[in-house]
Amino acid sequence: MHTPYRILFVCLGNICRSPLAEGVFAHLVRASGLDVRFEVDSAGTGAWHVGEPPDPRSAAVAKRHGIQLEGAARQAGAADFSEFDLILAMDADNYRELEELRESVGTPRAELALLRDFDPEARDDRSVPDPYYGGDDGFDRVFEIVHRSCVALLASLDPMEGR
Ligand code: 4NP
Q1: Where are the alpha helices (DSSP H) in the chain?
Q2: What's the pLDDT tens digit per position in 60-92?
Q3: Ligand 1 cavity residues, CB under 6 Å
Q4: Do residues 28 and 104 lie in contact, with contact meaning Cβ atoms separated by under 8 Å?
Q5: 10 Å Cβ neighbour count for 72?
Q6: What is the 88 CA–ligand 1 centroid distance (Å)?
């Protein structure tokens, strides 16, 4: 048996982007039969929405793609750097906040990166845009970015890749 590889997806509120990334990645992992190899979670750098379920617009776009979002929002903390192997920020602001948290940890276990570091279509802008104040089309766009980034992320981590 292998110890599961633990990934934490982080955005600002933990109600729009990161629960979607968590749900999409978990779905891809299940579809690949790799459930036992990975554990996923999500969190927000802010605390405003702690305890809330995913935003209905994120839940709706996920559902249209056959994915059920789960969980309640929580705030990211320094302990996450000891408990996860990889922490993926949705945007540059989230990344900066996480860097500050990481500084309070002696020897972090987790590697920190941007989700869009894995996006094969990302150019200069490596942030997943914040859809909170926009319309439903913003959530469709976020889904596409998150989905193709998660496919590439899993391919980069999948121990069976290339077999
Ligand atoms: P998220 O979106 O970071 O993708 O969950 C947001 C959710 C809430 C707020 C901003 C962004 N807010 O300002 O409350």
Answers
A1: 17-31, 56-64, 80-83, 92-103, 136-157
A2: 999 999 999 999 999 999 999 999 999 999 999
A3: 11-17, 44, 48-49, 130, 132
A4: no
A5: 13
A6: 16
